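Q&A FORM
Asked by: J.P.
Topic: structure of Phenylacetate-CoA ligase

PROVIDED:
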Amino acid sequence: MEQWSWPPRYDDDYRPAEGAKHWFPRRETMPARQRDELILARIKDVMDYAWARSPFYRGKWEEAGIHPSSIKSLADFEKVPVVRKEELRADQAENEPFGSYLCVPPEEVKHVNGTSGTTGRPTAFGINERDWRSVANAHARVMWAMGIRPSDTVLVASPLTLYWGSWGAYIGAERLGARVFPFGAGVSGQTTRTVHWMKQMGVTVFYATPSYALRVAEVARTEGIDPAELGVRKLFFSGEPGASVPSIRARIAEAFDAEVYDSGSMAEVSPWMHLGAAADEPGVLCWQDLVYTEVCDPANHTRVDYGNEGTPVYTTLERTSQPMIRLLSNDLTRWEAPSIERGRTYPFLPRGIYGRIDDMFIVRGENIYPSAIDDVVMADPEYGGEHRIIISRESIMDTLVVKAEHRAELGTDTRAWADRLAGKLRAVLGVGATVVPVEQNTFDRTAFKARRVIDDRSMLHQLRAEEAP
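REPLIED BY: S.T.
REPLY: Here is the structure written out as tokens.
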């Protein structure tokens, strides 16, 4: 396959012809079974490499009675124990700063990214220069599939901090040859400035989270600017579900009159665009030659058949500094078999990553994912821009409450609107939901990932007290 070797080596001067559909035609369109044979050989290379250099992996595999030489098929690879994020955190705590799964000398690390640490000890990502360039080349490939070209101006409108997503988008656009505008986000007043800079600089491609794109559109209107007239032709996203959720996707596409592309996996796995769209439609391809993705049964971590739901397990095929080998995501998705009709012979996730196993909650026996509520609420024409999902308890029964902003034009007829919305939610979720209408701009907007779920078992009584005359 073009430019596929171990360790990875890329020609940074290479770029397809302007009208080319593929960055690497053979890699992207070859028969999937033939690619799988090459992926198996690469997995052996990666496992041999990690066995020789990483006490973390060698110890984990020895305990499981597995040696890289025992992997003769992709089915054998399913026997390799998964890695959990808490294991990585614990290993880094014992082997600071990068953990014993670092496979290069510490002095070779030239870039540091990481998690925020909001849910525990932050995890540091140590990246050598080879991996930095491999990620740039990989992201350029996927962005090329999205139709982004050197003539574009790409606005990176997510925080330029430890967050890998911003830097991956930045170096990918740079490698592709586009003009890169790393404006960032997260500072007070930044969104208003973003809108005016977008107009001034002629931004044609926008990258952020879906929530922030909706916020930019909202602020543009308050500034007297129609977001559809900003000139953006493509928007691509990561960081949270949304770009493959029909109602959210439609709101963004309609606001900017532009194409919408989904992408993204986990902070620990970069190139994170290995789950990336190649067409203006919901869903993402699994670019298996970048990161081998298995959609697995959450109970036994073996692959589920195409057409079924499971949790992705990721193995990086081009990372030399901190390779991830069967990293468990705990996300949720459903996959479909490769089809050349999509232009590339990779497995397809028609709804992208649409939730997390640990985000799921149960109300009266029904499994409910926040993205299902988001889809219903955001599709309503009277929806005002933000909402909160509240799990509460009345006596011994769990109750679902959705506080939803409504448009100012709705006036005082909010109860009828709330009842209609509650009916739509019941039809989709299978359980009743109390919808509490609130005025527009009640909730804070975010420049990063939206956090909409609140588990408060006494909240319903408080809400009813607020409604009482």
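FOLLOW-UP: The chain has two domains: 1-356, 360-467.
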